[in-house]
Amino acid sequence: GSGAYGIVWCALDRRTGKCVALKKVYDAFGNVQDAQRTYREVMLLQRLRHNPFIVGILDVIRAANDIDLYLVFELIEADLTAIIRKNLLQRDHKRFLTYQLLRTVAQLHAQNIIHRDLKPANVFVSSDCSIKLGDFGLARTFRSGFDNEQEFLDLTDYIATRWYRSPEILVKSRAYSTAMDMWAVGCVIGEMLLGHPLFEGRNTLDQLRLIVEAIGVPSDADVRSLHSPELETLI
Q1: Which InterPro entries match (predicted)?
Q2: Cβ-Cβ contacts under 8 Å for 57 (sequence gap 6 or more)
């Protein structure tokens, strides 16, 4: 698969004879922002390496061109997107996956980590229906004692993950919290139940329209609390 920052292959580790997931991060140190993002991802994965619900990082390899970086991960059979598309989930599967997902996200938040890119494609499922959460490229830590809020001004506007973005992210609120992960978790659970994405917006405005139709127009107090001039204009 491929994303905004790199591409992932299934590869053979000739030292162990095992298949692994090999992620190539393009121009990992090209500028300060890219270098910080790469460093954060590696450090967070190292910190979480003993968590059985997180895809384990096995190695970090700097490319021969001294520009790109390779991250070696354990290989999991499938991701939740593919499983939902193939309509393979029975009721008990959905309940077990939901429990594991909620537990994993709760563990992250208890360690002051916000994933920020939760979606079915980042939930990997093994043959025994156990999950591992992956792709921590956008994850951030937050300070305890700060009401679980932090300003993240560099949140990347991923087109592919629009369907799982919380309303405060869609309107570019300057302050948000672990609630953004919980919104995404709700969208993932909804997709498992329905067999298709909960809110399939064609663009940001359409995404907001679908959300408002489902949960209602926010109150004036809600709008003010988001500190978003864009939202005041839209409403």
Answers
A1: Kinase-like_dom_sf (IPR011009), MAP_kinase_CS (IPR003527), MAPK (IPR050117), Prot_kinase_dom (IPR000719), Ser/Thr_kinase_AS (IPR008271)
A2: 42, 45, 46, 49, 71, 72, 73
Q: Which domains does the chain have, with CATH numbers?
A: 6-74 (3.30.200.20), 78-234 (1.10.510.10)
pLDDT digit string (tens) for 22-81? Answer: 999 888 887 888 788 888 889 999 999 999 999 999 999 988 888 889 999 999 989 999
Cα–Cα distance between 167 and 212 in angstroms, integer? Answer: 9
Name the maximum alpha-carbon separation found in the chain. 60
Measured at the CA of 104, the angle between CA 81 and CA 9, to 5 degrees, comes to 45
Characterise 180 by phi-psi region: left (phi > 0), alpha (psi -120 to 50), beta (else).
alpha
In this structure, the strands spanning 18-25 and 69-74 are antiparallel
With contact defined as beta carbons under 8 Å apart, do 186 and 196 qualify? Answer: no
Identify the weakest region by mean pLDDT among 116-130, 156-170, 174-188.
156-170
Angle, to 10 degrees, between the axis of helix 179-194 and the axis of helix 91-110? 170
Task: Confirm whether pTM is higher than 0.90.
Answer: no
Question: Of 34, 92, 117, 220, which one is the catalytic site residue?
Answer: 117
Concerning whether 117 is annotated as a catalytic residue, the answer is yes
Say which residues have a Cβ less than 8 Å from residue 121's Cβ, sequence separation at least 6.
1, 79, 80, 81, 135, 160
CB 23, CB 7: distance < 8 Å: yes
Cα angle 25, 26, 32; round to 5: 95
